[in-house]
Amino acid sequence: MRVMAASSFSRNLARHVSSLHRFRHFSSSSSPKLPRSSNKGRWLTGAAVGIAVAGGAYVSTVDEATFCGWLFSATKLVNPIFALLDPEVAHRLGLSAAAHGWFPREKRPDPSSIGLEVWGRKFSNPLGLAAGFDKNAEAVDGLLGLGFGFVEVGSVTPFPQDGNPKPRIFRLREEGAVINRCGFNGEGIVAVAKRLGAQHGKRKLDETSSTSTSSNDEVKNGGKSGIGILGVNLGKNKTSEDAAADYVQGVHSLSQYADYLVINVSSPNTPGLRTLQGRKQLQDLVSKVQAARDEMKWGEDGPPPLLVKIAPDLSKDDLEDIAAVALNLHLDGLIISNTTISRPDSVSRNPVAAETGGLSGKPLFDLSTNILKEMYILTKGKIPLIGCGGISSGEEAYKKIRAGATLVQLYTAFAYAGPALIPQIKADLAECLERDGFKSILDAVGADFR
User: Fold this and answer.
1) Which one from 267, 337, 360, 368 is the annotated catalytic residue?
2) Strand 407-410 and strand 385-388: pairing?
């Protein structure tokens, strides 16, 4: 399609050039001579057209992988423009671009060494987009098309809510960090369920009408979202007095569209939410949510795995309690971690650090990775962990994996660097595995403890 389009573009330009020559011949025989500046303009126009024709012809000969690489690299040119905008406006524009298909689509296959299977689902790579970017499931296809192995939408609350007053997102650019206090702003379960239901129906229709082998393989190696794995992150409304009821409602409404579900009890921007990480509170909450999921009717694939997302600001006793609950209730996984309310030394001198809210980005890396290590040890490597917090390179993703993460997520680095970061991280991750003699991601999980 791309080659045909490029060739067509070149032919159309060639016809325009031919018409231009005929017009110039007619003009020279019937009109007075034009000033020298006009001649110069015609030469510049002709040169521009010639370059365009040559460029179109060249593009038509370039292989798809090279052309795809160009498109991802070209997104770097847009980043400075987004940096000039208000953070929330920039986020909205980026989300809209993904929703409307303005982002490039990854056509190159991932290295086989970074593919893996978790919870019976096949991930083409372990790199995911954390919850918070696409709160309302507006751009799932466009974001997965960037080459993420999985995308997590939400947090989704039962009822729509505006979140906290603006401004509520603050950049710490030099530190590669962001502070946010959004407060679960979103459209609510009904809107997200309608959107995911429509997307799910369209994919089923496409699968039914498609007879190509490549399309069937693509669905087989992905999840309910087709080309990748879809996670749905559940939250509670700010004014809700029954947290469990909010999460149960999310399960009943959204689990049929999810490859995995997340109970978010770790956002610092919803009053009282983090108290649900206590042993008794978490045990009661997880038990009720599991029961709600298991009472529903499921097909051969069974119910979606259930995970809990925890904070990085937990004591050793807190971590021991969470690990005990996770093991006792056979929780399917943990996401480590959410944003931090602490202000590490690397950001403490920045005036923006005085803003309340959760800190994400590079300063969170060490803190979240240390919590990840502790939890891997406490759960004895029996529960898949998703490492999240401060990842901005393939080497850092690899460190999370060696520390015990089976999958990894990013958000802040993606907001700063854009789509070009995704293929770079995956390529660097494959190089790290090869360098250390690992044939697959799963071989490297928890390697620091062996």
Assistant:
1) 267
2) parallel
To the query of whether residue 440 is one of the catalytic residues in this protein, the response is: no
Residue whose pair of structure tokens reads 């795995």 in the numeric block: 305
The C-alpha atoms of residue 155 and residue 266 are separated, in whole angstroms, by: 11
Residues with Cβ within 8 Å of 357's Cβ and at least 6 positions away in sequence, in order, are 168, 170, 179, 180, 181, 268, 269, 339, 341
What is the C-alpha separation between 208 and 204, in angstroms, rounded? 6
Quick: pLDDT tens for 157-205: 999 999 999 999 999 999 999 999 999 999 999 999 999 998 888 777 7
Enter the CATH code of domain 85-449: 3.20.20.70
Whether residue 274 contacts residue 319, with contact meaning beta carbons closer than 8 Å, is answered with no
Interatomic CA distance for residues 353 and 240, integer angstroms: 30
Q: Token digits for 305? A: 């795995």
Query: Where in the chain are the domains?
Result: 2-62, 85-449
> Mind listing the pLDDT tens digit for each residue in 299-333?
888 999 999 999 999 999 999 999 999 999 999 99
Cα(146)–Cα(148) distance, integer angstroms:
6
How many Å apart are CA 444 and CA 229, to the nearest integer? Answer: 21
Structural contact between residues 192 and 254, judged by C-beta atoms closer than 8 angstroms = yes
User: Do residues 425 and 128 touch, judged by C-beta distance below 8 A?
Assistant: no
